[in-house]
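We treat protein structure as text, and this decision shapes the records that our systems exchange. Because each token names a local backbone shape, the row as a whole describes the fold. For reference, a complete record is included directly beneath this paragraph.
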Amino acid sequence: MHTEFTSEDLAQLPALQPPTWGNLIPRFEYFIKSEHCKPIKIAENGEVVAIGTSILHGDTAWLACIITHPEHRKKGLGNAMTLSLISELDRAKYPTIYLDATEFGFPVYLKIGFELEELYLHFRREKPLLEHVISKQILPSEEKWKAGIFEVDKIVSGEERSGVLSDFLANAFVYVENAQVLGYYIPDWGDNPIMAVTNQAGLELMKLRNQTNDEARLPESNIAAIQFLKENGFTQFQTSRRMFLGTKRIWKADKIFNRISGQLG
């Protein structure tokens, strides 16, 4: 049986920490305090053996950080955690559920009924950084650009994510043309996302992002961005799978120039 994950459980996260993931503690600190997240756990004899959270948007939900303790694998806990997260959702209010699946989780989610929607390609820079002139149309985000950021995000993602997005805009950048936001980049959230409604805006923001990032993760449908990465010394090293359960929605995979994270696409 699952129960709520609370601040008292944070001390047990290092035992569940996947070696290639970022630090779980700040993520779950956010999940606990956010009104848009519902983190839960499965415990045995006081030990947390599986964790996960749902992240709620307007009428969609993402399942994230579904992790089983390495000493308790092959017990069906990943399946149980996923089903528990789904059971907590009002399916009438959230008809579409998303997640990003690792190789390990993919067969589990298929059996539950999730469908493959898109591959995310993971790149790593293997050559020295190329010099790029940063566009003067890239500006630090201000309050006046917030509505434009939300509009770009809604067009690209097909979701209403302003509730969560609002928490991470303090250090964002926007690409502006004729007083209209055409793209945004958030350098200190997740995988440092870039969403843009035009290729020019997305590629210019990638030039800025590449100054401080040696890795990139984006949908295989974004041919322009993948070509840009290859021309700038990046090579693919991994894939993950975006999956959905329920109603299939319209979104623009070719306008995600770097995903937010495995927990938000």
